[in-house]
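We close this part of the discussion by returning to an individual protein. Part of our work consisted of pairing the sequence of a single chain with a tokenised description of its backbone. The amino acid sequence and the backbone structure tokens for this protein are reproduced below.
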Amino acid sequence: MTNNISFSAIHTFTIVAKELSFTRTAEILHITPSAVSHQMKLLEKQMDVTLFHRQSKGVRLSLAGEALRRHATSGVKNIQHGIIQSQFASQKEKLVIAVIPSLCQLWLMPRLVDFCHKFPQIELELVAIDQLADFTTGQYDGHIHFGSGDYKGCEAKFLRNEKVYPVCHPDLVKEASDNSHEGLIKEHQLLIYKGGIEDEPGGVSWGSWFRSLSIEKPSELNQMWFSHVSMAILAAKLKQGIALGWHQMVIDDISNGQLCRLTDSEISTSFNYYLVAPSKSWKNKSFSHFSSWLEEKMSF
């Protein structure tokens, strides 16, 4: 393979491979479609392979193009990440921790000041992602994840189980004509978290809540759907209805009076919180500090 292939051409290729359109790629890069086409023809000539099958509308990847896409996409991300890291390099030991978004926002962020105070020599980079981090890229040191605990090729430390119960703003309870658990559910909008591919099997839906407590589902449901737990909880804090609160994510809001529990009943989730990481991370002293701190905080 020639050494004259530019990073710009590979970067353009990754976008074409994602969009399958020279026109759309040109719009993203703010160049002309003919410039994209020229770059791709030159790349194919330099590599001596056919990367695309041109079609009347767009393109599709050849076998060679698919093979390049798998490696080039992660490679471009790593290069871009490395550029940013070099621009903000420091003498501190840096940890890159992936976290499920809602837990990051509602539980971890308010507690980070304590970690920074105890470990000023460690610099954290937090990345909110739903699905398990791809540790093969070398970009992540660990992932605070909600799952089954079975993570192939990684070691997982159990952090905490989770439980779920209905919550709303205290004013909804005060103003309700029937402030019983069942009465509030009938009167107010249900704020529903629509679980993702990975965590849906381990979560608790309103349907399972009704079945577990033998509550008759209202004949006419007034509901609103959300992609993340934190969105449903925020809507509850804004008096927009009743959400199924995940205990770790609502405990602070309950303590400061922004939310209240509607019942002492609760359902435990089948998934739990884990700190997941490749074996090399567990040998890192800074990561061990973070792991111990996280385990301590989760135990409260």
About this structure: The chain has a mean pLDDT of 91. Residues 163-268 form a domain with the D-Maltodextrin-Binding Protein; domain 2 fold (CATH 3.40.190.10). The longest strand covers residues 93-99.
